[in-house]
Amino acid sequence: MEWYQSEILWSLIKILVLFFLIITGAGYYTLMERKGAGYFQLRYGPNRAGIWGIFQPLADGIKFLLKQETLPKHVDVYLFLLAPAISVITAVLLWSTIPFTPLIDLPFEVLGKSQVALQVLNPGSGILLLFAISSLSVYGVMLAGWSSNNKYSLLGAVRSTAQMISYELSLSLSIIGVIMMAGHFDLYRIIEAQNENGWFFLSVPGFLGFFVFIVALFAETNRLPFDLAEAESELVVGFHTEYGAFKFALFFVAEYMNMITVSFLTVILFFGGWNIPFFLRDMVSGMWWGPLVGVLFFVFKAMFFMFLFIWVRWSLPRFRYDQLMNIGWKYLLPMALIQIFMAGIYLYLK
């Protein structure tokens, strides 16, 4: 057997490539947010570390690594250290199920296949596995607040746990219409279904599902206007009040990883993934560089939603906690159920 026929080798290559993309993407997403905040507030963002501040993420990473690690005496040590690890591990695992590229033709067969995609795992129930992994991230937040033995941290963890559990229901229901219209749980096949039938966003149930999905994502990722778990005016910084140095960096990086992940997921479920829109599809059809153009469109569409997180953060005020829960239970949940009913009618009449 040739060396390039090793399944373990190809899996390791995919894992290393994705891990590099995760760390680099999360680092430069922080720079994108800080630059965006500067433009929104009519000031300069980071502009000292390299040209246009391009080395600022590297400088931040070195700073976090070199800062002195502290461990408060009153914390539960094992759970205190475990919490940030859970958050970043779940964030990394989510990337393993995302199909970042279409199937690419190879000049030789690998493991009996002449095509390969940048995706570590391709289970038939990819969307279910992704949501199962994402639901575990709440344990990192909950354990961080509990183990810190701090009233601000505990209140932030309770808020965040209630918020994530409440909005996970609407988030899960919002994709059922997509699954019904695609007829698959496989993320790759969901993209292919949109290639054949058009983007789900353009259908009535798809549009309503997208609206519920995108609002629930802001609550799931603890971003403004739903960042009640980190309300500085009340809770200092919430569940990670006692964390510093590299342990805080893990929470910080996990948050930005999750925002990148859900941006790609939004494009996959509602905007056709790497499918090229309109007349451009015919222009690249049959060309060897067609898949590359598709990947560029995929990234471009995802970057719009990454920018949307920044735009909303620096444009809208924070909701009160009772308003947050009312939106989740009294508005989003009924809308999610209605879009499932509408998806059934859409499929019946189709």
Secondary structure layout:
Layout lengths: L6 H34 L15 H11 L10 H19 L8 E7 L2 E4 L9 H10 L1 H11 L3 H24 L1 H7 L4 H11 L6 H17 L11 H4 L9 H26 L9 H5 L5 H24 L7 H29 L1
Antiparallel strand pairs: 1-2
Helix pairs in contact: 1-2, 1-11, 1-13, 2-11, 3-5, 3-11, 5-6, 6-9, 6-14, 7-8, 7-14, 9-14, 11-13
What attributes does this structure have?
mainly alpha, 2 strands, two-stranded antiparallel ribbon
Output the helix-strand order: HHHEEHHHHHHHHHHH
Cα shape? globular
Helix content: 55-70%
Read across the widest sheet, the strand sequence of neighbours is: 1-2
Question: What structural class is derived from the secondary structure elements?
Answer: mainly alpha
Structural commentary:
- This protein has 350 residues and is mainly alpha-helical.
- It has one domain.
- It contains 14 helices and 2 strands.
- Strands 1-2 form a two-stranded antiparallel sheet.
- The longest helix has 34 residues.
- The radius of gyration is 21 Å and the shape is globular.
- It starts with 6 loop residues before the first helix and ends with a helix.
- The model has no long low-confidence stretch (mean pLDDT 85).
Summarize the structure.
With 350 residues, the chain is mainly alpha-helical. It contains 14 helices and two strands.
